[in-house]
Amino acid sequence: MRFLVFQHVAIEHPGIFREFWREAGIEWDAVELDEGEPIPELSNYQALVVMGGPMDVWQEAEYPWLVPEKAAIRRFVAELQRPYLGICLGHQLLAAALGGTVGLGRTPEVGLGTVTLSADGLADPLFAGFANPVETFQWHSCEVQHLPPDTVVLAGNEACAVQAMRVGHHAYGVQYHVEITAETVPQWRELPAYAASLDAALGPQRAAQLADDTAARLPAFAQAARRLNDNFLKLVAAAKTLA
Asked: Which candidate in 12, 13, 69, 88 is catalytic?
């Protein structure tokens, strides 16, 4: 298998998934869109994974590469009908590219939290083996507000109704960060936009404590990430067989 990864800032990469993909022998190519790297031929890849970033889906004037990115997502999911996994901004881009809408949420979510799987989520193969509710790490201020056609909500919470969704048969978005590692919080705090959102959401004292609070939960997050990755790889293998 070969995966294509869209990145929007260098510090938001596939994180712990890199370890899992290496173990599984999966090759992957990262395109750093914010640095002007071109999007390759999509048909060469069995899955598209789209990461987070500090920009918003509607900021096409400031980030013109969002236009071809959305077109590529639309082609990969709607035309090629191949598996997709979007995380945070990648989740929102899936909605925007396929006809949904994204806007500012009522309350920014930063730090530890939980989401509740819906009946559809409990039955979905991506969440096979998950306990309910699901413990998560969040860092977002926007949310999917209107779903694209042929979409089911797989998880939500009081702050954000669409924490996970499936579009069609095997295009998935999760609003929270499954990929985190021990380096995630310290590295993201170095980005001014993220540092500001962290302090605004939690206050300076709780913000300073976030890295330690998250470190204590990393073994559980790693276990959940492995389970979700294993489930996604099964979906990719099944889709490849049907192609």
From this structure: 88
pLDDT in tens, 125-156: 999 999 999 999 999 999 999 999 999 999 99
pTM of the predicted model, to two decimals? Answer: 0.95
Residues 101-134: pLDDT tens digits?
999 998 889 899 999 999 999 999 999 999 999 9
93 by Cβ neighbours in 10 Å (0-12 / 13-18 / 19+) ranks as: buried
CA distance 178 to 134: 11
Q: Which residue type does 237 have?
A: A
The CA-based diameter of the chain, rounded to the nearest angstrom, is 52
Q: Can 142 be counted among the known catalytic residues?
A: no
Count of positions (residues) in the chain:
243
Sheet strand arrangement including 101-117: 27-32, 2-7, 47-50, 84-87, 171-174, 164-167, 151-156, 101-117, 134-146
Comparing C-alpha atoms, which of 12, 47, 21, 11 is closest to residue 226? 21
The yes-or-no answer on residue 170 being catalytic is no
